[in-house]
Design a protein that fits this description.
By secondary structure, the chain is mainly α. The protein has six helices and two strands; from the N terminus they run αααβααβα. The longest helix has 33 residues, at 69-101. The radius of gyration is 16 Å and the shape is globular. The chain starts with a helix and ends with a helix.
Length: 151
Amino acid sequence: MKTLGNILWHFPFFGFITAGFVYLMGLLLTATVIAAPIGLGLMQLGRFLLTPFGHQMINKKDTASKIDPRWDKYSKIVMILWLPIGAVLSVISALQAIAMALSIIGIPVAIVIAKSIPTYFNPVNKVCVSTAMADEIERTKVQTKLANAGA
């Protein structure tokens, strides 16, 4: 089913063009160095858009990787500057998802667009991971909350 969803995303809806555009936009922003936190997140979104069924976008903090505190503070400052652009992109994506959901063949595309809206709004420190890994991270977080609540 994942393969069929990815095929429908790419053909006839040209998802690979969207993925390439988002990745190139991220590459351009990363090359400016100043907007690197946003660019890195958009490159991860471009990676997600290549195979959206079977992958998810999650916060980097949810993974086991460590984030430099200075990079984290800088990312938050850059994110504040990105908010108006991210809000516009999110609204456009939401309208596009609604329009795609009106036809049966457009439903898989609407799902992909809906899954990418939070990353368009806030691409900073986002990572593309497989769905299995995202489920495992979520399970670990829930177990940790339960263990802390019981202690």
